[in-house]
Write a structure and sequence with these properties.
The chain has helices at residues 6-20, 27-59, 62-72, 75-110. It starts with 5 loop residues before the first helix and ends in a 12-residue tail after the last helix. Helix 1 packs antiparallel against helix 2. By secondary structure, it is mainly alpha-helical. It has 4 helices and no strands.
């Protein structure tokens, strides 16, 4: 089951990254490496798909899955799928900026209280 088209997107992303990746060796060596990497990816991906299906089976009723499928094949659902990756990428950037701002504030607030002999954990 390719829940909401995510599986194909993961495959496409991996293929694009693999094709852009600089690999050592001759062109023939690179071709063999890419083929081997794709085969390994597919092995891992099959397990990933099984785990995804198990996860959805544990948490969603058949009625919810059926309703979700009906939505995602509707024009509105298809539109949502088209923009979901862009929205997720922008949300990740917002989350990164939030985390960065909070860490900067924490450092600014805490720094005056730290004496020079303090050793940070970790």
């Amino acid at each position: 089951m390719d829940f909401m088209g995510a599986g194909q997107q993961i495959r496409d992303d991996y293929h694009q990254k693999l094709n852009k990746m600089e690999l050592p060796g001759s062109e023939e060596d690179q071709k063999e490496m890419r083929k081997a990497l794709l085969e390994k990816f597919e092995e891992h991906f099959k397990e990933y798909e099984k785990q995804q299906l198990d996860l959805h089976d544990r948490h969603l009723s058949e009625a919810v899955v059926d309703a979700s499928i009906a939505f995602y094949v509707s024009p509105e659902g298809e539109e949502l799928l088209k923009v979901s990756k862009m929205i997720n990428e922008e949300c990740e950037e917002l989350s990164f900026r939030l985390t960065q701002a909070v860490h900067e504030d924490m450092a600014e607030i805490i720094e005056p209280y730290i004496d020079e002999d303090y050793e940070f954990p970790g």
